[in-house]
Amino acid sequence: LLDLGRDTGQSDVREAIVEERTRWEQVLDELRSGSESQGALGINDPLVPRRIEELRQRWVQNLRPTIDLAITVSGARLQSAQNAYLAQADSLVASVAEIVHLLERQAAARTTRLYTLQLSFLVLSLSLMGITIVVLHRKVGAPLGRLTQRVRSLVAGDVEAPPQPVAADEVGKLVSGFEQVADNFRINVQELEALH
Asked: Rounded distance, CA 57 to CA 149, Å?
């Protein structure tokens, strides 16, 4: 815009300004409505959409008309439009910087929430694994350990060891079956001893 009025190709400069104005309007529309992949901006912070709307209003009411005027006039009116543009552009850039800061803060808050959620799921998973290990040890490991001790005592010749308590699960059925074998073995040993 500031190149207007100089002895350069005015039509090329004017076309570039129109293209840039169109891009700005697209950016403002996307900020306002969001995108298909990201959705609307500022869903968690109502200040973001309000600031975006204020920025769009400033663009529509002040800066765009100044640019439109500047690309159609010359001389003193062009100089006046350029000065108005410079005065308003700094304010617009400051507003964009504020919106970017708000969005960065929002992204940081989301990242922190995700980190906390991941940490919570990790702690929950480790707790569930610990509980599972304790339950498996009580239901499977301890009875199998006692059964192993019973087998060792039978191998060592102690056929009179008391039977183990039996649960109703698969491990209990295994222990019960082993106790029946041990009882049969004890009866056979007693019969053999009686014969001698």
From this structure: 84
DSSP-derived letter for residue 69 is H
Q: Are 67 and 85 in contact (CB under 8 A)?
A: yes
- Among the residue ranges 27-31, 38-42, 44-48, 170-174, the one predicted with the least confidence is 38-42
**Looking at this protein, which amino acid is placed at residue 9?**
G
Instruction: Show Cβ contacts of residue 50 under 8 Å, excluding neighbours closer than 6 positions.
Output: none
Of 151, 147, 192, 152, nearest to 167 (Cα)? 147
Mean pLDDT of 105-116: 92
Q: What's the pTM?
A: 0.55
> Token pair 């599972």 is at which residue?
132
Pairwise CA distance, residues 155 & 63, whole Å: 97
* Structure confidence by residue, pLDDT tens digits, 146-174: 888 888 888 887 777 776 666 777 878 88
Cα within 13 Å of Cα(181), Cβ side: 11
DSSP 40: -
Burial of residue 107, with CB atoms counted within 10 A of its CB: 0-12 exposed, 13-18 middle, 19 or more buried: exposed
- Classify residue 52 by burial, with Cβ atoms within 10 Å: 0-12, 13-18, 19+: buried
Tokens of 163: 């039977």
**pLDDT given at position 111:** 94
* Cα distances (Å, whole numbers) of residue 106 to 42, 45, 52, 115, 151: 8, 7, 14, 14, 65
